[in-house]
From TrEMBL:
<dbReference type="GO" id="GO:0006364">
    <property type="term" value="P:rRNA processing"/>
</dbReference>
<dbReference type="GO" id="GO:0005730">
    <property type="term" value="C:nucleolus"/>
</dbReference>
<feature type="compositionally biased region" description="Basic residues">
    <location>
        <begin position="44"/>
        <end position="56"/>
    </location>
</feature>
<feature type="region of interest" description="Disordered">
    <location>
        <begin position="99"/>
        <end position="126"/>
    </location>
</feature>
<feature type="region of interest" description="Disordered">
    <location>
        <begin position="374"/>
        <end position="405"/>
    </location>
</feature>
<dbReference type="Pfam" id="PF07767">
    <property type="entry name" value="Nop53"/>
</dbReference>
<dbReference type="InterPro" id="IPR011687">
    <property type="entry name" value="Nop53/GLTSCR2"/>
</dbReference>
<feature type="region of interest" description="Disordered">
    <location>
        <begin position="1"/>
        <end position="56"/>
    </location>
</feature>
<keyword id="KW-0690">Ribosome biogenesis</keyword>
<dbReference type="GO" id="GO:0005654">
    <property type="term" value="C:nucleoplasm"/>
</dbReference>
<protein>
    <recommendedName>
        <fullName>Ribosome biogenesis protein NOP53</fullName>
    </recommendedName>
</protein>
<dbReference type="GO" id="GO:0000027">
    <property type="term" value="P:ribosomal large subunit assembly"/>
</dbReference>
<comment type="function">
    <text>May play a role in ribosome biogenesis.</text>
</comment>
<feature type="compositionally biased region" description="Acidic residues">
    <location>
        <begin position="304"/>
        <end position="321"/>
    </location>
</feature>
<feature type="compositionally biased region" description="Basic and acidic residues">
    <location>
        <begin position="283"/>
        <end position="301"/>
    </location>
</feature>
<comment type="similarity">
    <text>Belongs to the NOP53 family.</text>
</comment>
<feature type="compositionally biased region" description="Basic and acidic residues">
    <location>
        <begin position="99"/>
        <end position="116"/>
    </location>
</feature>
Amino acid sequence: MLQDDKQLQAGNMAARRRLKRVASSQPGFLTLKSSLHPTDLAGNRRKRVNKNKKKNWNKYSDINDVEEFLEDVRHQERTTGGLLSEKTDDNLFYVDLGQPEKPEQKAEDAQPDDGKKRKGKSSRPLRIDLILQRDSLVPPPKDILAYQQPNAKKLRRIAQKAEQLAAKGVVPRRQKRLLNRRPVDRTAKKAEANNNPDREYYDIWEQQPKVTADPWYLQQTGKKLVKRPEKLNEKPSVLPAVEVIAPGGSYNPDFFSHQALLQEAHEVEVQKKKQEDKLERQLAVNREDKATEETNLREQVEGLVEEEENNEEAAPSMEDDEAALAAIAVTQKKTERQIKKERAEKIKEQQRLANRRQTEQQQQLFQLRSIKASIKKQDQKTKDKQMQRRAKQEAQKAQPRRLGKLKFQAPDLDVQLSDELAGSLRQLKPEGSILKDRFKSLQKRNLIEPRERAKFKRRLKVKYVEKRAFKEIT
């Protein structure tokens, strides 16, 4: 089908060229180029050469007159939309009747408002639009591929066959099966597949009706929806997605704003320097702690003297224990009188403590004012601690949490020194990277954990082999 269309288009183009040549050979054909002369089209006397050979075709074939003619025809088509010989007199000429008279303006329209623009200026197109307009009157070629369809001939044949069968009154088997299908009962609601085209319309934004069935039945049948936890509705961080930089970070900032930003960056660098110095002090080695010959000898002899002293002290301690055990064995049992006396003293001590406790409680009645003041002070202290704890929790919401084994490292401030400031956007030097800024923002808002670039780890060992040339030299 595509080959037939191409042949048809080629035939139309050949017929069109033939028609143009015939029209140009007529005595009424007009040319737009002054270089062409009617006598030039007749041609001069040509040299007689053998054109059976291919090498003489371009060498002795003079086609300048044909090219000039075709170029003139194309020029007429671009400028006038066709050949001048085929145009009518009304299209080529017009009668000049002079400047047309303008109708008299009404009294109301004679004095237009100063704030309104004239209609002529508003309706006039812009110069850039006139430049971009199409200046050729030749219509664009018809795109044949836009009208083609895959398997068009097959589909046309199937449609013709279906029309013939319909004219005879024959029903195809496929249509019979569709007509004989059992009608669907749309009133009965049942579970349907998601890919069923005949299912009822379901609005996902519709308000769900209240279910009045038994909760146990709904839970066992799986019809009860799972309650969404309230924590899932909370954002992991209260920070905005895009943080606006301070006014001092502008390309042409105010002096005081820029100095404030420089002071903030300076404080950050000072804190880093303090941390580095602290780490160096902790890891520094004290000269006094270095081992010498005297300290080594003292460590070697340290355990020998203590063992001898311990052995000397151990002997008398064993004798004292034996004497204490003998004294306990010799002591006699307490008598009944002693037991009663100890019991009476114990009861008397308990009574004394109870009386003292009761006296203290009675004395507290006169201290109610001071007790109330102490309770009030304690309650105020508890409230202050609760407020501090709540403020700390609110502040922690804006801080990055520990999501992995690495801690969040805040990026450096994008700031330029005073001598690096540019007065315009054209001279501005970019600072930082947009990709790194977005990556750090995701980490700061607790959306992803802080991570570092994976390090390359060689699995196989490197094997060194000496070449023969190296062995021969050595």
